[in-house]
Amino acid sequence: MSLYRLGLNMEFLLAVSTALLLAGSVSSQDMSHEDLLAQLQACPKECRCPPSFPSAVYCDNKGLKRIPVIPPNTLYLYLQNNLIEVLSADALRNATQLKWLNLNHNKITSEGVEEDALKAMPNLVYLYMEDNLLTSVPSALPQSLEQLRLSRNKISKIPLGVFSNMEHLTLLDLQGNKLQDEDVTEASLKGLNNLVQINLAKNQLSNMPLGLPSTTTQIFLDGNNIDKIPASYFKGLPKVAFLRLNHNKLVNGGLPKNIFNLSSILDLQLSHNMLTEVPTIPAGLEHLHLDHNQIKYLNGSDICPLPAEALDDYFDEKGPRLRYLRLDGNEIKPPIPRDLMVCFRLLRAIVI
C-alpha cells in the first residue's frame, strides 16, 4: 500500500474515531463502529457525508439529474436544488430508516414518482417536495408522515384515499397550487384525523374548503377568491386559533354577524379584502388584521364584544383580550376613538 493511500486511510479512520468520541451517540441513534464505517464508505461520490453527522447525506446543489443510491443508515437526506425528474424506488431501496427527505426545487413530475418509492420508507416523518412539477398529491405516502410540504407545484388533484390512515400527519402545505373547490372536499381529505395546520393559500378557491378535520388549529387561505363564509362553517372546527384570509374578496354581506365568535380564535387576518365595516370581534381574540379594506369609520362601542355595563368587570378572565389591531390602508382618520380603548384595555399596538 502506498504511503499516500495509507495516509488517506489513517485520516479517514481518525475522523471516524474522533466523531465517535465527540458524539457518543451518533445522530441520535446507536450506530455501531462497523455500521459507521460502512455508512461513510457507501456515501455517494456526488454527496457529502460528514463523519461528525454520518446519518445525514447532503446531495443538495449538485446539479444532479438522478438520485444516487443512498446508504442504509441514512436518517436525513438533502436533495434540494437539483435537476431530478424521477423519485426512484431503486435509489431509495436501502433507505428504510429515513426520517427526513428534502426534494425541494427539482423537476419531479407526478409521473416521475415511481410506485412504492415513498411507501418503502416506513419511518419517514418529514417530506419536502416544494417547487417541483407535481400535478397531483403523491399516492402511497408513508403512514408515519407528520409533515407533508407540497407548495408551489401544479397540483390540481387530491386523489381519493390518498390520506387514508395518515393518523400522524399534522401539517399539510399545498400553498401555491391549482386546487379548486371541487378538489378540496371531505372525501379527498378523509383520513387526516389529527391535522393541525393546513395551508391552501394561493390556489383557485372561491369558497371556504369543506371537510377540514375537527382537529385543525391553523387555516391559511390567503390569495384565493373567497367572498363569503357560510354561517355554520366553523361548527365542526372547535379548535381554530389562527385564520388567515388575506387577499381574498370578502365583503361584509358575506360575513354572518357572529361568524368569528369562536372561543378558540386568537389571530384573525382579513387584510386586503373589500370590507366596509369592522366585523364582530370575539372576546378572546388577541390579534386582528384589517388593513387595506374599505372601512370608513371605527366605533369602539359597536365592535366591543361586551356591553358597556360589563366593562367594570373587565379584569375578569372573560374580558376582551385584543392586543394588536391593524387598520391602515382604510379610510379611517386619526385620532383613535376613546371608546375603543375603553373596551380593549389590553391593546398595546394599533395601526391606523
From TrEMBL:
<keyword id="KW-1015">Disulfide bond</keyword>
<keyword id="KW-0732">Signal</keyword>
<dbReference type="Pfam" id="PF13855">
    <property type="entry name" value="LRR_8"/>
</dbReference>
<keyword id="KW-0433">Leucine-rich repeat</keyword>
<protein>
    <recommendedName>
        <fullName>Keratocan</fullName>
    </recommendedName>
</protein>
<feature type="signal peptide">
    <location>
        <begin position="1"/>
        <end position="28"/>
    </location>
</feature>
<dbReference type="InterPro" id="IPR003591">
    <property type="entry name" value="Leu-rich_rpt_typical-subtyp"/>
</dbReference>
<dbReference type="InterPro" id="IPR000372">
    <property type="entry name" value="LRRNT"/>
</dbReference>
<keyword id="KW-0964">Secreted</keyword>
<keyword id="KW-0272">Extracellular matrix</keyword>
<feature type="domain" description="LRRNT">
    <location>
        <begin position="42"/>
        <end position="76"/>
    </location>
</feature>
<keyword id="KW-0325">Glycoprotein</keyword>
<comment type="similarity">
    <text>Belongs to the small leucine-rich proteoglycan (SLRP) family. SLRP class II subfamily.</text>
</comment>
<dbReference type="GO" id="GO:0005615">
    <property type="term" value="C:extracellular space"/>
</dbReference>
<dbReference type="InterPro" id="IPR001611">
    <property type="entry name" value="Leu-rich_rpt"/>
</dbReference>
<dbReference type="InterPro" id="IPR032675">
    <property type="entry name" value="LRR_dom_sf"/>
</dbReference>
<dbReference type="InterPro" id="IPR050333">
    <property type="entry name" value="SLRP"/>
</dbReference>
<keyword id="KW-0677">Repeat</keyword>
<dbReference type="Pfam" id="PF01462">
    <property type="entry name" value="LRRNT"/>
</dbReference>
